[in-house]
């Protein structure tokens, strides 16, 4: 998973060359909310939620939900 996330997250940490997994353990970086704000800006959070929701719906419609990796974590971020 970190290999998929790293290209999207690392640009928000220009002052380090740590690997993503080590970076996320470092309080120096985690305590600064600016990286989260930037990562979610410009409708990116809404787009991610929509894509996750669409993927789940498609998998359910095709009967493939039990054959793939999935998560309902997007529901924690979805505002209704």
Structure, described:
With about 80 residues, the protein is mostly helical. The chain folds into two domains: about 1-40, no CATH class; about 45-80, no CATH class. It has helices at about 1-10, 20-25, 25-30, 35-40, 45-60, 75. The longest helix has 19 residues, at about 45-60. The radius of gyration is 15 Å and the shape is elongated.
Keywords:
80 residues, mainly alpha, 2 domains, 57% helix, elongated
Main sheet, how many strands, which sense, barrel? none
Structural class: mainly alpha
Number of helical elements:
6
The N- to C-terminal Cα distance equals 28 Å
Estimated helix fraction: 55-70%
Query: What's the average pLDDT?
Result: 79
What is the string of helix and strand elements? HHHHHH
Shape: elongated
Unreliable segments (pLDDT under 50, ≥5 consecutive)? none
In short:
With 80 residues, the chain is an all-alpha fold. The protein has 2 domains: 1-41, no CATH class; 43-80, no CATH class.
Write the layout of secondary structure elements.
Elements: H1 2-9, H2 20-23, H3 27-30, H4 34-40, H5 44-62, H6 74-77
